[in-house]
Amino acid sequence: METNSLHNGDCKSSVLCKSELHNGDCKSELHNGDWKSSVLCKSELHNGDWKSSVLCKSELHNGDWKSSVLCKSELLNGDCKSYVLYKSELHNGDCKSELHNGDWKSSVLYKRELHNGDCKSSVLCKSELHNGDCKSSVLCKSELHNGDCKSELHNGDWKSSVLCKSELHNGDCKSSVLCKSELHNGDWKSSVLYKRELHNGDWKSSVLCKSELHNGDCKSSVLCKSELHNGDWKSSVLYKRELHNGDWKSSVLCKSELHNGDCKSSVLCKSELHNGDCKSSVLCKSELHNGDCKSELHNGDWKSSVLCKSELHNGDK
Q1: Which residues contact 54 (CB under 8 A, 6 or more apart)?
Q2: Among 77, 121, 265, 285, which is least packed, fewest CB within 10 Å?
């Protein structure tokens, strides 16, 4: 795989085409059989044409980028043009802009939670995501962590890495999610993903408990399971063109799994994020931020915000 490429035009050898993600069948699941015109097959992310890109589509922010969720000041300081996702790459090599309001040192992603305070050696501060060295990058690895718990993503020192922090898996690398073979394979019950928040405590019937991701059988796979799109792949979100092909009611995000079966009051069905009706939105639900309907993400009140909740970083700003 070449630098700055996710799949290098060769679908069969690409990350997303690997059996790990969709059973090596590059013409099924995720992009509806037409890899070249699929989202993930586009160069960089949106093929340089932001207006025709997925994230610029009305599906995500109603066609009005300036008033969209991702262009809101909460995430990128109101400057849509300098926003991360608007950039041709990920963050355009400018560590002091986008995503974190220009003040990188005081930003969330600069916090030790993500990269231990060293911006230059952090993942997101690297050019292109992995510093131009595809072979040693996370996305270039055949799996996710290549079975080597002390390399990639966390710079060799797993114990002091982000994912090994108590925030995600209680500081114990061996019992952590990403350090486990395949993703969990160990003390799953004490892991974050095992919490009822994701699959209601019933791991065996959950999505992430399936071998690999879908075990080569679409009907019994994660993406084909009722967990994600009610067992009917053709009417599922990922099978639909763009996000849900205009048929919102039969889409995944409109299913009771995410927002209690009420499409009109759901997050993605709302214009923007929750259409001003925060109380009935997903992000306002107690599951995500304890019923505190603060606008945007945390509205200046960090302690009561979503990201400040103990679930993510133990309430320690």
Answers
A1: 39, 46, 60, 242
A2: 121
pLDDT attached to residue 125:
34
Sort residue 162 into left (φ over 0), alpha (ψ -120 to 50) or beta. alpha
Q: How many residues are given for the chain? A: 317
Q: How far apart are CA 294 and CA 297, in angstroms?
A: 7
pLDDT per position as a tens digit, 32-64: 333 333 433 332 233 233 333 433 332 233 333
pLDDT of residue 10: 39
Contact in structure between 115 and 123 (CB atoms under 8 Å):
yes
Dump the DSSP string for 163-201. Answer: TTSHHHHTT-GGGSTTTSSTT-SS-GGGSSTTSHHHHTT
Q: What is the pLDDT of residue 161?
A: 40
Residue showing tokens 């949106």: 46
pLDDT band at 198; cut points 50, 70, 90: very low
Q: CB-based burial of residue 5 (10 Å sphere; 0-12 exposed, 13-18 middle, 19+ buried)?
A: middle
Spatial contact of 130 and 136, defined as CB atoms under 8 Å apart: yes
Residue identified by tokens 């013409």 is 27
**8 Å CB contact between 294 and 301:** yes
Cα four-point dihedral sign 294, 252, 257, 219: negative
Most trustworthy range by pLDDT among 88-92, 175-179, 194-198, 240-244: 175-179
Token pair, residue 295, equals 């606008």
Which residues fall within 8 angstroms of residue 76, CB to CB, at 6 or more apart? 70, 82, 83, 84, 98, 99, 101
Cβ atoms 31, 39 nearer than 8 A: yes
Q: Give the span between the Cα atoms of 232 and 306, in whole angstroms.
A: 33
pLDDT tens by residue, 245-269: 333 344 333 332 333 333 333 333 3
pTM exceeds 0.70: no
